[in-house]
Amino acid sequence: EPPVRALVAWALTALALQMVFGDIGYLNRYEVYLWGALLPVALAVATPWLEAVARQVRGGAVLASGAVLAVGAVLAWPYVRDLPRHAPAANDIYTQQVQMQRFLVERWRGPAALNDIGYPSYRNPHYVLDLMGLSSPEVLQARRMRLHDPSWLEEAVAERDIELAMIFDSNLWFPAIPDSWRLVARLRQTRPRATRMGGLVVVLYGTTPEAAVRVARLAEDFAPTLPPGVELEIDPTFRRWLEERGG
After folding, report:
1. DSSP assignment of 78-111, as one string?
2. Residue 162: per-residue pLDDT
3. What mean pLDDT comes out for the span 166-171?
4. Burial code of 53-69, b = ≥16 C-beta within 10 A, e = fewer?
5. Residues 88/111, Cβ–Cβ less than 8 Å
6. What local confidence, expressed as pLDDT, does residue 40 receive?
7. 175: nearest Cα among 167, 187, 184
8. Rounded CA gap, 123 and 107, in Å?
9. How far apart are CA 143 and CA 138, in angstroms?
10. pLDDT at residue number 103
């Protein structure tokens, strides 16, 4: 029937778009919405066949029910298989993202620039600049056009009076860091991670020398409050620089 055909065409289009542009399989979280859309369509298409089997075949109702349960079991298996990973994955978020948010809200109490703003911006009353550009179109454009020129990072934080940057310790994210930024400390996970996060280490930068001194002071005050499995250490080079200037 035309309505069913339209639903099938819509479902197949959604599936194709997800397969081409989406992500599938990472803790099975990116495709869940698609199952919610496809399963009702599949049931609508299969219902006439299931009813026919139930009426015309001996024991057809049992056979039809068994077929539905078997298909459901096959589709549900990846989610059942990954259930043991959920708790360790949640702990990864707790030991990294939640601690970043705590530092921003409890100690820094001001605007900051990050390349992973998810939880650190949650219940954070202060401005958070997304250096990946997903929530800042102008930053996204600058990042795409001048990725290997660190001046765009300087300009982005200067325009917004941001003195703290917290980014993953990997040049895959930012091939070049401004010379004016000072690497102050590293927030490091000390246990094997269970999730595909951006990295085990988040680096804290002060965007000016004065800001770097403040970041270091707050980081040292914050470090003893961290839970097991994570540590916040002042960079040895920065500590020497601080001692040389009498800090």
Report:
1. HHHHTHHHHHHHHHHHIIIIIHHHHIIIIII-S-
2. 97
3. 88
4. beeeeeeeeeebeeeee
5. no
6. 81
7. 167
8. 14
9. 9
10. 98
Average of pLDDT values for 165-173? 88
Cα–Cα distance between 110 and 108 in angstroms, integer? 6
Beta bridge partners of 167: 203
Residues in the chain: 247
Cβ–Cβ < 8 Å for 120, 198: no
Following DSSP, what letter does each residue of 33-83 receive, concatenated?
HHHHHHHHHHHHHHHHHHHHHHHHSTTHHHHHHHHHHHHHHHHHHHHHHTH
| Residue whose C-alpha is closest to residue 223's, from 196, 175, 186, 173 | 186
Cross-strand pairs, 188: 201, 231
Name residue 187's beta-bridge partners: 202, 232
Mean predicted confidence (pLDDT) in 43-56: 78
First to last CA, the chain: 78
Question: Tokens representing 23?
Answer: 């992500």
**Euclidean distance between CA atoms 142 and 133, whole angstroms:** 9
Which tens digits make up the pLDDT trace of 59-79? Answer: 777 777 777 788 878 878 888
What does the alpha-carbon distance between residue 245 and residue 247 come to, in Å, rounded to a whole number? 6
C-beta of residue 239 within 8 angstroms of C-beta of residue 129: no
What letter represents residue 36's amino acid? G
pLDDT score of 115 more than 90:
yes
Residue 170, CA atoms < 13 Å, CB-side half-sphere: 11
